C-alpha cells in the first residue's frame, strides 16, 4: 500500500497559539484510518487544512503524490478528496433523493447554453443522475424516505444521507468528522456497515475523526493519536488502548 494522503511537517497557529506542530501523518490507500485525541488536540484543524478549508503556515500535503498544499476545497473535490458536511439549510427543503441529485458537479442542466441548445443531452444526464441517486439511496437504506424533506429526517438518517452524497461523486478519499455524534445505535450500525462496504467494495479510503471508541475499534486500522497538534502514537486499536501515554493524555496523570 502507498500513502494517498501524506501530511508533511505541517504547522498552524491561530494568533499566538500553536495548534498544529510539525505534524506528519500518512493515510494508506484503501485504509480506514482513525484520528483521535483529547479535546482541543487539533484534529478538526488538521482536517480543515487537508480538506482545503484552512491555509497552513508551513509544511506540505500530498494527495496520491501530488502537492495539494493550500489548494481550495472545490479543486480537491474534483480530485476526489472530500469531507462530509452537515446538510446545509437550503438543502433541508429538498427531498432526500433531490439532495443526492444535487451533488454531481458540472451537470449539463446547470448551463443555460445546454438547457436551450442541447435539451436532449440535459434530459439524458438527468436520467442518469436520477438512476445513480436511486441506487445510492437503496445502498444507504433510505429508499423508504427518499421523498421526505431532508430537514425532516432523523439525525442518523441525515448522516447516512451525507455519506450517500459522497457516493454521488468520484470520491477516492473521504474525511469523516464525528459522523457518529447524535446517531442512535441501530443507525450507527448501518452507517458503519456502509462505510465498510464503501471501503471494501468500492475502494474508498477514509480518514475518520471520532470520539466514539466503539466505532474507532470496529472500523479503524491504524489509529493515529494527536495531542497538542502532533502525533503522539500510531498503531492498532489494541496498541493505542494499552499505551500509557494515551491513557494519560485522555484521563490525566495517575490513570495509567
Ligand atoms: N479559527 C480558530 N481561531 C482560533 N483558535 C482556534 C480556531 N480553530 C480552532 N482553534 C483552537 O485550536 C485548538 C484545536 O482545536 P480543534 O477544533 O482543531 O481541536 P479538536 O481536536 O478537533 O477538538 P475537539 O475534539 O474538542 O473537537 C483549540 O484550542 C481551539 O480553540
TrEMBL record:
<dbReference type="InterPro" id="IPR003593">
    <property type="entry name" value="AAA+_ATPase"/>
</dbReference>
<dbReference type="Pfam" id="PF00005">
    <property type="entry name" value="ABC_tran"/>
</dbReference>
<dbReference type="InterPro" id="IPR027417">
    <property type="entry name" value="P-loop_NTPase"/>
</dbReference>
<dbReference type="InterPro" id="IPR051120">
    <property type="entry name" value="ABC_AA/LPS_Transport"/>
</dbReference>
<dbReference type="GO" id="GO:0005886">
    <property type="term" value="C:plasma membrane"/>
</dbReference>
<dbReference type="InterPro" id="IPR003439">
    <property type="entry name" value="ABC_transporter-like_ATP-bd"/>
</dbReference>
<dbReference type="Pfam" id="PF12399">
    <property type="entry name" value="BCA_ABC_TP_C"/>
</dbReference>
<keyword id="KW-0813">Transport</keyword>
<keyword id="KW-0547">Nucleotide-binding</keyword>
<feature type="domain" description="ABC transporter">
    <location>
        <begin position="5"/>
        <end position="253"/>
    </location>
</feature>
<protein>
    <submittedName>
        <fullName>ABC transporter ATP-binding protein</fullName>
    </submittedName>
</protein>
<dbReference type="GO" id="GO:0005524">
    <property type="term" value="F:ATP binding"/>
</dbReference>
<dbReference type="InterPro" id="IPR017871">
    <property type="entry name" value="ABC_transporter-like_CS"/>
</dbReference>
<dbReference type="GO" id="GO:0016887">
    <property type="term" value="F:ATP hydrolysis activity"/>
</dbReference>
<keyword id="KW-0067">ATP-binding</keyword>
<dbReference type="InterPro" id="IPR032823">
    <property type="entry name" value="BCA_ABC_TP_C"/>
</dbReference>
